[in-house]
């Protein structure tokens, strides 16, 4: 079968953070998510709080520990800072998916379990990913409540005004791993989730004057609903963004989530007005882009792309538009990518890598982390 685990697509992504309330407010104010669910002492959960946020097909859970004794959350945040703990896959049968994944080499974290309340039940299980991350298998076909048992409506309705970001769904999830771990985790995902290697970037494919990296993209065989690039450091003159991530995160983990939009110009305009900070692109990039526009493929006005700092890369018969936020928390680790695929584009903006990574290096230099410590 092309999709042996019967994966339907991404479901929710859960972040472990220092303050779930503040993160929920930021996502609502800056990225126009709706806070639709809450879990905490008021719903019978005594040791942590969680907020459930939704934007079209995107589902985020933001969790923080109330007490240091809730070690799973508190220790994650102490070590890694705010970041993604787990991403989940909607599957037809949780036990079957879990059993097949473990049979094919998946490291079990949580055995299949049913969670019930008056609204029905959900089923979940989980396998290991990277250092402290997890992949969850979930089925909620028999649940009519808010997200899952233990969640209710937000305790207090907060009126948050934000420009509509137009964000639609998760496009891909990127992991940064240590040297010699890229192939290990790529093979792990291919075997356990029945994915396939879609793209590989070797030595020299992704590099700047100062730094370089290796990258591999694995995806599901059902039209690429699940796409997971994996980045590994490669030796360069100075510290790469991947090395900085690993140093600051204290290990391998999830670097960014790419979110799709149907109109990236409108989305970036709204996000900027909401206060989201993005990486900057040199003016010369757009002058070169105009020279490349021989096929008249790009329907957007290049001056609009310049105005909002949006990157554009042609590939095959299509093209993609993308832009990356600055790190959204105190550590220079996790960030978001906003992406729009046009005319069936499937790649990840290889033609933008040079401009993108040079932009990241400018921020690294400001942080004093571009040079390696002696």
Q: What's the CATH topology label of the largest domain?
A: 2,3-Dihydroxybiphenyl 1,2-Dioxygenase, domain 1
By CATH, the architecture of the largest domain is named: Roll
Low-confidence stretches: none
Q: Number of helix segments?
A: 9
Number of strands: 16
Strand content: 35-45%
Widest β-sheet, arrangement of strands: 2-3-4-1-5-8-7-6
Structural class estimated from helices and strands: alpha+beta
Average pLDDT over all residues: 86
The helix-strand sequence is: EHEEEHEHEEEEHEEEHEHHHEEEH
Taking the alpha carbons of the first and last residues, their distance comes to 51 Å
The major beta sheet can be summarized as: 8 strands, mixed
Described by its quaternary structure, the protein is: single chain
According to CATH, the homologous superfamily of the largest domain is: 2,3-Dihydroxybiphenyl 1,2-Dioxygenase, domain 1
Tally of structural domains:
2
Topology:
Elements: E1 7-16, H1 20-31, E2 34-39, E3 48-55, E4 58-65, H2 71-80, E5 83-91, H3 94-103, E6 108-117, E7 120-129, E8 133-139, E9 167-176, H4 182-193, E10 195-207, E11 212-220, E12 227-234, H5 241-249, E13 253-261, H6 264-273, H7 283-292, H8 302-308, E14 311-315, E15 318-324, E16 335-342, H9 353-367
Parallel strand pairs: 1-4, 5-8, 9-12, 13-16
Antiparallel strand pairs: 1-5, 2-3, 3-4, 6-7, 7-8, 9-13, 10-11, 11-12, 14-15, 15-16
């Amino acid at each position: 079968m092309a999709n042996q685990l019967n994966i339907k697509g991404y479901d929710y992504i859960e972040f472990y953070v220092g303050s779930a309330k503040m993160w929920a407010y930021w996502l609502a104010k800056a990225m126009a998510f709706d806070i639709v669910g809450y879990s905490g002492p008021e719903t019978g959960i005594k040791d942590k709080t969680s907020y459930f946020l939704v934007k079209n097909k995107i589902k985020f859970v933001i969790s923080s520990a109330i007490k240091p004794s809730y070690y799973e959350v508190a220790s994650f945040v102490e070590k890694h800072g705010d970041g993604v703990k787990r991403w989940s896959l909607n599957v037809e049968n949780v036990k079957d998916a879990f059993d097949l994944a473990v049979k094919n080499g998946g490291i079990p974290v949580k055995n299949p379990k049913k969670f019930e309340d008056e609204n029905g039940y959900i089923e979940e299980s989980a396998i290991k990913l990277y250092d402290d991350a997890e992949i969850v298998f979930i089925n909620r076909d028999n649940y009519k409540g808010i997200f899952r048992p233990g969640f209710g409506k937000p305790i207090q309705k907060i009126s948050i005004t934000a420009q509509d970001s137009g964000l639609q769904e998760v496009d891909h999830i990127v992991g940064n791993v240590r040297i010699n771990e890229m192939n290990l985790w790529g093979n792990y995902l291919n075997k356990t989730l029945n994915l396939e290697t879609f793209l590989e970037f070797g030595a020299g494919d992704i590099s700047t004057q100062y730094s370089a990296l290796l990258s591999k993209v694995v995806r599901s065989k059902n039209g690429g609903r699940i796409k997971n690039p994996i980045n590994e450091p490669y030796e360069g003159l100075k510290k790469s963004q991947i090395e900085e991530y690993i140093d600051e995160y204290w290990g391998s983990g999830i670097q960014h989530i790419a979110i799709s939009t149907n109109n990236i110009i409108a989305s970036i305009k709204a996000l900027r007005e909401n206060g989201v900070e993005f990486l900057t692109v040199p003016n010369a990039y757009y002058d070169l882009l105009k020279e490349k526009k021989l096929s008249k493929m790009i329907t957007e006005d290049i001056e609009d792309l310049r105005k909002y700092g949006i990157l554009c890369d042609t590939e095959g018969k299509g093209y993609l538009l993308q832009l990356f936020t600055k790190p959204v928390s105190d550590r220079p680790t996790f960030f978001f990518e906003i992406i729009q695929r046009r005319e069936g584009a499937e790649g990840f903006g290889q033609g933008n890598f040079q401009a993108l990574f040079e932009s990241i290096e400018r921020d690294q230099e400001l942080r004093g982390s571009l040079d390696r410590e002696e």
